[in-house]
Structure formats: structure tokens, C-alpha cells
Write a structure and sequence with these properties.
This protein has 446 residues and is of the alpha/beta class. It has three domains: 200 residues, FAD/NAD(P)-binding domain (3-Layer(bba) Sandwich); 110 residues, FAD/NAD(P)-binding domain (3-Layer(bba) Sandwich), CATH 3.50.50.60; 99 residues, FAD/NAD-linked reductase, C-terminal dimerisation domain (Enolase-like, domain 1). It is 30% helix and 25% strand. It has twelve helices and 22 strands. The strands form five sheets. Strands 1, 2, 3, 4, 5, 6 and 17 form a seven-stranded mixed sheet that branches. The longest helix is centred in the first third of the chain and has 25 residues.
Length: 446
Amino acid sequence: MSFDVDYFVIGGGSGGVRSARIAASHGAKVAIAEESRWGGTCVIRGCVPKKLLVYASEIRRTLDDAAGFGWKLGEASFDWAKLIAAKDQEISRLSAIYVDLLRKHGVAIHEGAARLVDPHTVEVGGARITAGQILIATGGKARVHPAGKPELWITSDQAFHLPALPRAVAIVGGGYIAVEFAHIFAGLGAKVTLIHHDELPLRGFDGEVRQMVRDGLGAAGIEFVVGSVHDASGVPGQELTLTLDDGRVVRCDTAMSAIGRDPNTADLGLEELGIALDERGAIEVDEWSRTSVPHIYAVGDVTGRIALTPIAIREGHALADTLFGDRPTPVQIELVPTAVFSQPPVSVVGLTEEQAAERGLDVQIFKSSFRPMRFALPGRSEKMLLKLVVDRASRRVLGLHVVGLDAPEIVQAAAIAVTMGATKDDFDRTLAIHPTSAEELVLMRG
């Protein structure tokens, strides 16, 4: 049977674009469709703009510390509109790069929402295109809190385009997005309340890490309220009232829902084709990214796998190699480095102490907690934590957890060693770079 293209990709985010480019580089005839802006969640409304706002908010800490190093500064002011305009310009630049890369690889670009008609046909912009293989890489969408009317809430999507910096913002959630935006808004000058149903944020992280993150929220002037929002009322941008289950009230002018993201599977024609979804509505796939329907695949946040940009990129690349590169490549990811850009930041790879215990592993814990030299002269009391989870018998490093300055940069490099199976002895015989905070990784002793 003859098809219009060898490969049709639905979704112009990181996973879809990578898969399309690699497939085209292998000689496949490729087309891709995107209904919004090119770059997906990460580039348009996620990792990239978030990190730019993190950089902006961290300036307050630098200004506060400046006097300790002998600097005498005048009164500082912040311009939200200027920051957002600069951010938008950078995002537009990156989005254009995605389009340019696709074109350079000869990928046919379709602007518009695509829908599956049958296992080999996609409809987009009124046209029907047949394909030998189809990839769904439509990502996810932010979940709106169910309390009150939906229009009372913003999500991270709207947070990047607010007309003005909120005076008082209440954020509901305790994950990456909630913690990061709490620090962003607080650093830029807003009064922030973080509402979470658990005593500690960042479920699934090491217990000591979670406690340090909560302490960091308090040090930044962020009020941490334990509870669940039952109702919401008021006028967004003016005055909102969030009522908790126990009757307590939190007042703000902006309420942000940061309670997770859902897979973007609506209106794709999945049900009609019998593509299996899990209880969250995510597309079920195997290690080859195959769905329950032959010739149709899925990668990235739309699946039930790990919702991180590097994972989507790895999955999309592996699929293109498998289908068109004569390089069968299953996706089997065991060690996933990750970072939370709180202030101070958190970064980890491998098992937590709690996870090791749940698996019945006999481990040794090596850790170091100290105030970085960077804060000696300003007198900031903030501490740094470095923690290794080590298998007692083999001495293999099973987990690395860092809270503090440059934690993501440290863990990204150290994750290479952990992924290679480095032992505590390998760390011990590595010479330190002095003076650095990261040198504690190779100096810790039992």
C-alpha cells in the first residue's frame, strides 16, 4: 500500500520534533502537525520560560547579599512588563528555531489540530494525509482546581502572561510547579501562600530534602499552609477567598492551581480507533512506544511514563531509530536525574533513603550539611545538603541528593558516574576541587 508520507507526527513539542527530525535524517518522508506554537510545553509554557523567571527572581537574593561583599547599591525596582516582554521575545526565538530545524531536514509542516481518522490517516486543516506510521506526541495540559468556578484560577500557562505581578498569590499544590512559582512570585515581590495537603512538599523526594525545601519556603517569606481548598469565590485580580476544609480562609488577588497535569488526549480520535488509555487518560505504550493499535505510537507527556522533557526527547529519538534507522532501540530508563528550581534548588538521581528501605536494601548513608562559603560574608544562614545512598555490600552509589547552590549543575555531572555504576570508593579516590561546595561529594566519610 502506498502512503502520502512514511511518518506523520502529531505534536510539535520536544519529543515530536526530535522524532520527526531523526526520522527524516534516516531518509523517511515525514510530516508534522502542531495546533499551537512550536516547541510544546517545555519551550512555550514550561521549563524554559519558568527558568527565565527563576533567574529574574533570584536577583533579589543577590541584591540582599551585596552589602556583605562591600557593595553599596541604590534603591532597586522591578518591572514585570519588561521581564515578560523579554521572556516572550526569547520564547519566540526558540520556537522559530524548532521550525527552522524541521524545514532544514525536509519535514512537511502543517499548522493546525490533527485528528486520527484510521490507523493510517490523519486529518489536519481539512486535508487527509495517509502515513505508514503515526506518532502521537501531544503532551499534557495543566489541571484546574475543582473548587469554585474555573475562571477563578490561573495555571502555570496563564502565570507567564499575567498583565501585572500579583500583590498576593495563593498557590495550591506541592510539586515542582507549585514550589518553583512560589519562589518566583516571592522573589519578585508578591506575598505568597502555598497551600498543600501534606506537611511537606515534593512527594517522592528524600525526606530530608523535603524538609529543607519547606524550610527554604519559610526563609523566603512564603507562608506554608497545610490543608485542602474546599471552595473559592471572588473576583480574580482583585480579591479572592479560598476556604479550606476546616473552615480556615486564605485571601489573595490571584489563585494558582498547581495540582498536576493531564495527558492531552481529547479530540484526537483515539477512542474511535480503540487506542488503550489508562485511568488518567494517558496512552498506554510498551518499551517500543507502541500503542494498542498497530502503526500508531506515542511518546512524552501524553503517555503514562515519566513526564520530563529529556525523557520525551529520548523516546522520540529511539522510536525514529527503531522505525527508520535500522537501530531497534527500546526505551528502558532506570536512572532519571531531575531538578526542582526552588531557591535554593534541589537535584537528585537514583534512590532515596526511603525507597532503599522499602526495597529491603542494606545501605549506608553519607551526608554533609554546611553553610556554603558564598554566604559567609553576607551572613545568610542558608545551608546546603549533599547526601549519598550507598549499597553496603557492593559499595555502589544508588542515590545522590543535593539541596543548595548549583545543585542541578552538580548532579548533572555526577549522574554520569552514578549511571555508570560508580562506587563510594570511586568517589573517595576522586580528587577534590577546593574551595567548592561540590567537593563534599568526594570528601564524605562514614
